[in-house]
Design a protein that fits this description.
Elements lengths: L12 E6 L5 E6 L3 E8 L6 E6 H6 L2 E3 L2
Antiparallel strand pairs: 1-2, 3-4, 3-5
């Protein structure tokens, strides 16, 4: 499953892990995603979403309990 936010489209970013001896290996920073039921926008229907916590905190999604 893709590590991507359904609201803003934010995905993983890539870079290098650098050790103290300056050994360089590739690594990924994953998005902090939350699976939830919610509505997007004004006339949105209830659906299952994977939303990053930044969008959830900003109020871009209405969480349905």
């Amino acid at each position: 499953m893709a590590q991507r936010c359904d609201v803003c489209g934010k995905g993983p970013s890539v870079g290098h892990k650098i050790s103290h001896a300056h050994n360089v290996t590739k690594r990924r920073w994953l998005v902090n995603l939350v699976s939830m039921r919610g509505k997007i926008g004004v006339a949105g229907t209830v659906q299952r979403l994977r939303v990053c916590t930044r969008c959830l905190k900003a109020g871009k999604v209405v969480k349905i309990v």
